Amino acid sequence: SEARKSKTVLVMVGLPGRGKSFISRRIELFLRWCGISTKVFNVGRYRRAVSNKAATSGVDPAAASNRANFFDSSNEATVKLREEAAALALEDLLDWLTTEGQIAVLDATNSREKRRELIWQTIQNRSPDINILFIESVCDDQFMLEENFRSKIKNSPDFEGMGAEEAYRDLVQRIRNYEAQYQTITDDTLSYIRLFNLSSKVACNKIYGRMASSLLPYLMAVNIGTRPIYLVRAGASIDATRKDTANTFLTSRWGSGKVAVLEEEGVIFSEQLAIWVKDRCLRWMRDNGISCPALRQVMSKRLPSFIDKESSGWQR
Question: How far apart (Å, rounded) are the C-alpha atoms in residues 26 and 108?
Fold first, then answer.
C-alpha cells in the first residue's frame, strides 16, 4: 500500500530530561509491533563517539568530559563537535531510511529553530518525498521532572563514575545551558505534535493519515506512571447447549452451538477473585496516595463464562 511505501522522519524536540529518549523508544517499540520498520538514531551516542575521538587529539578538555560545559554555546570547539555529531546521525538516518526503513526517529534536543530548519532542508535535499514530523516534549511538572532526571542520571553513559549529587548538579547546569537558547516550535507551516508533561495535554498541527490514526492516539496514552494490571482466565466452567430452551439467555444471545458457563466451583473462584483484586487495588492506591473511589476497570470477553465471572463478584 502507499502507506507502507511512504517514508517519515520523526524529529524529537525538547530540553534535556524531558523524556525524549523515553518517548523515542516507546514509539520504536509500538511501530515495530504494528509491523512498521522503525529505528531510533540517538544523537547522544554520536556525540560521545565524536568527543572521545576528539579527546585523543588534544582539543578543549571540555570535549572529552561530556560534562555541562560541553553544552555551553559560547564554547566554539564543543559547538563544532556537537554539530558534527548531529550531522553524522542525520546522515546515517537518511541512509537507512532511503534503503530499508519506513520511519526513523531523530532523538536529540534540536532546541533551536535554526537547527530544525537545517534538519528539514537536509532531509528535503535528500528526498522531497520524505515526510517530516516534529515531536516536542514540554515538561514543567516538578515531580515528573525529578523522575526524568533520576532516570537519565541512572541510565545515561554521560554520568558514569559520578556520584548522584554531582551528576544531578551537572545535569541541571546542562539544562540551563540549553534553556539560554531554547526556542519552542511556533512555525505552523510544519507538522508537529507537542506533548505537555508526557501527554497530559497534546497539541498538534497538520497531522494526517497514518500519524493521525495510529501514532497520535498512542502518544496521547504514553506516561511514565506504574500501575498493576492483572490478567486472569475464567473459572471452572461447563458446556451448555445454546439451543437449550430452558436457558433463554443463551438461546437469545448466542444462538446455536455450545458455550461455556461457570459451574459452582467457577462461581466461588470469581467471588474470591473479586475480593482479592479489590483488596490489592485499595492497598496499591493507599501506598501511592490515591484516594479515587473508583477501584477498578474490568475488561473481559462477552462470553457467558466471563460475564458470570464479572457479575458474580465485581458489582457488589
Answer: 15
CB 146 within 8 A of CB 171: no
Q: Which amino acid is at 103?
A: I
Interval 258-270 mean pLDDT: 78
Interior CA angle at 38 toward 32 and 41, to 5°?
A: 135
Please, are residues 23 and 159 in contact by the beta-carbon 8 Å criterion? no
Single-letter amino acid, residue 256: S
Q: What is the pLDDT of residues 1-39, one digit of tens each?
A: 444 578 999 999 999 999 899 999 999 999 999 999 999
* Topology (CATH) of 2-221: Rossmann fold (3.40.50)
Polymer length of the chain? 316
Measured at the CA of 247, the angle between CA 244 and CA 252, to 5 degrees, comes to 90
Q: Which residues contact 65 (CB under 8 A, 6 or more apart)?
A: none
**pTM score of the predicted model:** 0.73
Domain boundaries, the chain: 2-221, 237-313
Across 95-99, 200-204, 244-248, least confident range = 244-248
